Amino acid sequence: MRFETSTIKDIAKALGLSTSTVSRALRDRYEISEETKKLVLAYAEKVNYRANPIARSLKERRSYSIGIIVSEIANNFFSQVINGIESIAYDKDYHVIISQSHESYKQEKLNVDHLASRSIDGLLIALSSETQDIDYLRDLYAKGLPIVFFDRVPEDFETHKVIANNFKGSFDATEHLILSGKRTIAHLTNSENLSITKERLEGYKAALVKYHIEFRPELVKYCQHGGMHSAELEQAVKELLPLKPDGIFISSDRLTTGCIMALKKTNPEVAHKIAIAGFTNSNLVELFSPSLTSVKQPAFEMGQVATELLISMIEAKRPVTEFETKVLDTELVKKR
Amino acid sequence: MRFETSTIKDIAKALGLSTSTVSRALRDRYEISEETKKLVLAYAEKVNYRANPIARSLKERRSYSIGIIVSEIANNFFSQVINGIESIAYDKDYHVIISQSHESYKQEKLNVDHLASRSIDGLLIALSSETQDIDYLRDLYAKGLPIVFFDRVPEDFETHKVIANNFKGSFDATEHLILSGKRTIAHLTNSENLSITKERLEGYKAALVKYHIEFRPELVKYCQHGGMHSAELEQAVKELLPLKPDGIFISSDRLTTGCIMALKKTNPEVAHKIAIAGFTNSNLVELFSPSLTSVKQPAFEMGQVATELLISMIEAKRPVTEFETKVLDTELVKKR
DNA sequence: AACGTTTTTGGGAACGTTTGCACAGTTTTT
DNA sequence: AAAAACTGTGCAAACGTTCCCAAAAACGTT
């Protein structure tokens, strides 16, 4: 802001002290006498002194802020994760800067670079569905930027990661469909690049195996853009329907809602006949028609855990070399 | 970030120039010869020089970033506004910092103060439903921080504002209910503090007047917390139902979905008998059951317009004294 | 009384920029 | 040929902090 506000210098001048003394008094350093501290604190209070974070960042070469990259804040899963992140970050006096990749690799990279140049102290990121090449992240990491991945994590990147138990979530959802009598269960999923895609496919397959149902590759449809374009979904639905599925298991929030939308739009007559189970954190799922069985991820908690890990990396005195991948359980909410 | 990156000084040393020359060359100032400029630019490119925005902010006393305060990013209306804001801001080389008030006055004030201390160049804000006292914003504004309000705007604050045509939106929605034969139309709305609450109430009343329907104050229910707590909504529904409304007009995104949810939960047998029309920007509205008529706000555009106004204030050479309140039309999407 | 310790304070450089001013060298004007 | 104007560059201060190092003040110990 361009307007004048009182600085440490002003306080020093007014009190006849040096800036160093004032700075130390404000930070409650042991070297300063109680008397002086009180004096300074009282005056600072009086003139409503606020430390300038920009100057502090420049000097300390850190910003007390962490960057977040998600594909869309409009996605309930991500906005819940963000709330979890904020809850921890604010507690520990970090600020958060949110960026959206809109599932675009280019945008993701642009945002990360921008954040990095703004001296974020650490990065929390869920990869875009387009992202294949994460060398740019490796570079930053190698230069010392702490990174924690969540939800969509790369395989070959040694750092902390936080994910949902995607295998089990998918298994449970698929099993639920099977137990309610479905036998031709399609699987609509995200880009093949994503970790979550692979894990969820495995869960789906495992459930089929358990109930001796043959896995048919043609029943699996990938959406490269994560359902960002409705055309993509309508196409997938169009290809799937001739195979006469009696159930569909869908592996992401946006795809789940998008798929139901596409079904209703293109084939309203069958929309209610196909059982749907899908990952979604929408809090509106109870309003949906047709209703569905949903797999809810512990989004808020995921944000919290990821942030705790990140802050521990940021504040570690020596480089961290032991990394964890935390796996959080999902919750199956059955169709009413 | 704590890791080393090349600075203007490094370039200067390497090229045997002074930092001033390098700085000017990078900023393409007329005083520097083409030759030197080329040299500097080439070298900067080579070492992948990135200006340190922190240092720049400190020196220039501005940050090229604008702050946003909304109540919830999980709200479709707000996330669309944010997308609109970003689309303009990035174009003009501003970065955005998003904060959520969660409809709490305290949180709102905290966030604003935090943003202000981080030297944002301007503020875009939609007030929380709790907010009554905006003196803290007046102070900042008086000190020189440009502020543009959108959606939830205060009455007595001279600056740019961007709102939807709430009166017309409400009128249209209410009229639609009347034309489909409803006569006992309840109105569920936000906190009385909010500008949108008043304007939407007026639109509702005007439609009643036009069709000679008596206005009954007991049919209007206010939700102080904007529907953040489900108890609040269930209470409102409980009080409304004994009055036997055959239609409900709801005045905000969160309230609309929350009300349907409360209806389904507490009185599933009547949920489908009451016609609902409500403000919502949810892109899932087609999936809802019961289905409803929705009033969509031009959220993306609202973000764009507000940002353009804000940036014009930020970049104005002399204090702006002429302010506009832009009013954007809403769209009525009738129930199928 | 002289010295060593401990406690408290101040001076000043540094973080990476931007920019007013001065200055040297070149060109134009008188 | 001297004066004026213009070009291109560098010096140094400033933005608001933090922190190393030194200095001063207060206190103890012989």
Automatic annotation (TrEMBL), chains A, B:
Pfam families for this protein: LacI (PF00356), Peripla_BP_1 (PF00532)
Keyword terms: DNA-binding, Transcription, Transcription regulation
UniProt cross-references to CDD domains, sorted A to Z: HTH_LacI, PBP1_LacI_sugar_binding-like
Listed InterPro entries: Cro/C1-type_HTH (IPR001387), HTH_LacI (IPR000843), Lambda_DNA-bd_dom_sf (IPR010982), Peripla_BP/Lac1_sug-bd_dom (IPR001761), Peripla_BP_I (IPR028082)
Keyword Transcription regulation in record: yes
HTH cro/C1-type domain sequence ranges: 7-50
Coiled-coil intervals, chain numbering: none
Entries under PROSITE patterns matching the protein: HTH_CROC1, HTH_LACI_2
Domain of life where this protein originates: Bacteria
GO terms, molecular function: DNA-binding transcription factor activity; transcription cis-regulatory region binding
Domain HTH lacI-type: 6-60
Protein name: LacI family transcriptional regulator
Species in which this protein is naturally found: Pedobacter psychrodurus
